[in-house]
Design goal:
With 155 residues, the protein is of the alpha+beta class. The protein has one domain. It is 42% helix and 23% strand. The model has no long low-confidence stretch (mean pLDDT 84).
């Protein structure tokens, strides 16, 4: 009797492997197609980082280029007493097309107690971009310096 089936088992295994690889590729590719339309977490994190850098190194800086995280205590007080809407406009977070909201807090490092807070309350859902920075706040009257944690959250 002549065996004319050839290598049927090996052909079957190769065919199934190619099929499964194709199916896995299609599912992973199509899931990646819709990800940019569902999430803007990278975008809001970049905005939070830009705002924190601008605040610390320009607006509230004590003017010492050797210590970029050294903040002037008077400028910190002034910043946290500003109007919310003017701060939104100053940082370019509002336009006719899109608007971002923020929450900025300054906390004591050892105890974690809240020193200052400005902005809206954090939403319970959605993407929130956050940047944390350790800063040194100098009291301009006493020249005392204290470490603080600055949180910038954008959504």
């Amino acid at each position: 009797m002549i065996d004319n089936r050839g290598q049927m088992h090996i052909d079957y295994l190769i065919g199934i492997a190619i099929f499964l690889t194709s199916v896995i590729f299609v599912f992973s590719y199509t899931a990646g197609l819709f990800t940019p339309f569902q999430s803007n977490s990278d975008e809001v994190t970049l905005i939070a980082d830009r705002i924190s850098t601008n605040m610390v190194e320009q607006n509230m800086s004590a003017g010492n280029p050797q210590t970029p995280n050294l903040l002037n205590g008077t400028k910190v007080d002034d910043f946290f007493n500003q109007d919310y809407e003017s701060t939104i406009d100053y940082y370019g977070m509002s336009s006719s097309y899109l608007r971002y909201d923020f929450n900025i807090t300054l906390e004591s490092i050892p105890s974690g107690s809240l020193i200052y807070s400005t902005g809206k309350q954090l939403p319970t859902q959605g993407n929130i971009g956050q940047t944390k920075r350790i800063v040194i706040v100098r009291n301009e009257n006493t020249r005392n310096e204290t470490q603080r944690m600055l949180f910038v959250r954008v959504w």
